[in-house]
Specification:
Layout (H helix, E strand, L loop, with lengths): L1 H12 L7 H6 L14 H15 L6 H15 L3 H17 L4 H10 L2 H16 L6 H13 L4 H16 L4
Helix pairs in contact: 3-4, 3-5, 3-6, 3-7, 3-8, 4-5, 4-7, 7-8, 7-9
Length: 171
């Protein structure tokens, strides 16, 4: 009995031998997947277009970045880290893109008129975030709105709303 106790004590502390290759082949491979869910393709498409607007004047300012992160939080219900990850992914997509069509086509199919209007308002908010409107920003906002089939009156309304929001005092 004492010999069994001493023997089991030593066996517990001894390192276990690696299973043979034949045994490994029979062992099911279970790798837990703890990856975050893939981002919504519509969010990526919208973010790419917003980044194009932000870079239209040649620079993506701190104010524009803050505005974009805030918008992603409010409209896409993303936390700060998820918003920054979306921006990083959209940056990669933006650099690889040849034109805006692939992104506007996705939004054309996935967004209704109200969502397109909100996106147009967000675009203008981004244009106004740094306090100045460059000619290319204005042109690009019109071009994207055109690709989204937004009539000029809708774009004008979105610009007016963004301007009104930008001039409201911050709390």
């Amino acid at each position: 009995m004492l010999i069994q106790a001493v023997k089991s004590l030593f066996e517990r502390g001894a390192p276990k031998a690696a299973p043979s290759p034949a045994a490994q082949d029979k062992t099911p491979s279970v790798t837990p997947s703890f990856r975050a869910p893939a981002p919504d393709p519509l969010h990526v498409a919208a973010c790419v277009l917003l980044l194009d607007i932000a870079y239209a004047d040649g620079e993506f300012t701190h104010d524009e970045r803050e505005h974009l992160e805030d918008v992603l939080g409010r409209h896409f219900s993303l936390g700060p880290d998820a918003g920054r990850e979306l921006i990083a992914l959209a940056e990669i997509e933006r650099e690889a893109a040849v034109d805006h069509f692939q992104f506007t086509r996705q939004l054309q199919q996935g967004y209704d008129l109200g969502q397109k209007m909100v996106l147009a308002e967000v675009m203008w908010g981004l244009v106004l975030a740094d306090g100045k409107i460059a000619d290319h920003e204005h042109y690009l906002a019109r071009k994207i709105a055109n690709l989204l089939d937004l009539e000029p009156g809708y774009l004008s309304t979105a610009k007016s709303r963004a301007t009104a929001s930008a001039t409201k005092p911050q709390r």
